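wait is this the right file?? whatever heres the structure
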């Protein structure tokens, strides 16, 4: 699928997102280190759930394909998903000691500690049977995150979902989202994530993640270009404060980042993905889509939490209108 065809399909503005939802505990008030905290605030978290939140806040329809633990924490996530208007019909509740992910996080830019509890993670219980029961009719795109590929069962389910989505003509999207603690080896992570990326029309990751796919950090940009040459419509190679290189079969686009006063480093990637896809779904150019993703990321890191920090359409438009457009460093 080329960029024009992908952009046209995305105009349906309906997304299925496969991956984890979880509970985030933030030490409160902002700036507090976890060892000194006497209270915490709870928010919806998890990369797939966060992407869904950003999409819905920007006017899209989104539903989550995952498993949650059939306990109070899993039901907290269900309630939060309903609060944000995210479809829950593809979620299966599971027992047997499986647990929804919990992250204990600090709202601090320097030395920000994020402790993630993932033993017996409920979202890894997703199966190919769950995918077989799922209809993607009416969906414009399937978005996956690399986290879902880290265990054999959910890995098989994720690859089956990609195959099904491609067969149904959906745009397939991956956020590489490499988390070393989830994998038994870097080589396994490289091989599996590369296989999934090759099944996607849109591939988004940072320089370290593309370096993982290449096998060497210094070859990450070459790998992004290779994936497009092999068939992807778009690869977005993010470089933190240095901006991003967005690659299509016709051209390369370099963009900077928006200036912001960051409170913490978390949530930027999920906000970028949601802002980028929502912009393409609304018919904006590739350049404007990248800038909208960057603006959503800048807003999100300036606020507490991830899901609640993500901007709605009015907030995003106001930010872009009043901010200085970023230039490449």
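ok assuming it is, sequence goes like this
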């Amino acid at each position: 699928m080329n960029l024009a065809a992908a952009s046209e399909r995305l105009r349906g503005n309906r997304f299925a997102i496969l991956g984890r939802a979880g509970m985030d505990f933030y030490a409160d008030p902002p700036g507090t280190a976890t060892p000194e905290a006497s209270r915490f605030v709870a928010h919806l978290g998890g990369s797939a759930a966060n992407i869904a939140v950003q999409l819905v806040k920007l006017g899209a329809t989104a539903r989550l394909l995952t498993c949650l633990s059939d306990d109070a924490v899993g039901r907290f996530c269900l309630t939060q998903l309903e609060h944000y208007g995210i479809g829950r019909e593809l979620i299966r509740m599971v027992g047997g000691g499986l647990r929804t992910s919990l992250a204990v996080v600090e709202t601090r830019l320097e030395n920000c500690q994020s402790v993630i509890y993932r033993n017996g993670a409920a979202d890894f219980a997703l199966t190919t049977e769950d995918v077989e029961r799922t209809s993607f009719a009416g969906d414009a795109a399937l978005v996956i995150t690399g986290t879902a590929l880290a265990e054999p069962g959910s890995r098989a389910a994720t690859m089956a979902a990609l195959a099904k989505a491609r067969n149904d003509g959906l745009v397939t999207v991956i956020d590489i989202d490499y988390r070393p603690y989830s994998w038994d080896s870097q080589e396994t992570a490289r091989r599996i994530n590369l296989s999934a990326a090759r099944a996607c029309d849109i591939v988004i990751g940072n320089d370290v993640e593309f370096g993982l796919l290449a096998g060497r950090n210094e070859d990450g940009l070459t790998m992004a270009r290779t994936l497009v040459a092999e068939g992807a419509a778009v690869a977005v190679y993010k470089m933190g404060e240095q901006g991003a290189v967005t690659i299509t079969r016709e051209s390369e686009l370099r963009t900077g980042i928006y200036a912001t006063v960051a409170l913490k480093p978390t949530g930027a990637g999920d906000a970028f993905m949601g802002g980028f896809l929502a912009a393409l779904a609304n018919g904006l150019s590739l350049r404007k889509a990248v800038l909208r993703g960057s603006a959503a990321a800048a807003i999100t890191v300036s606020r507490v939490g991830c899901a609640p920090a993500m901007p709605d359409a009015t907030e995003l438009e106001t930010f872009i209108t009043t901010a200085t457009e970023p230039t490449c460093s």
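DSSP finds eleven helices and 13 strands in the chain. so i think its the right one actually
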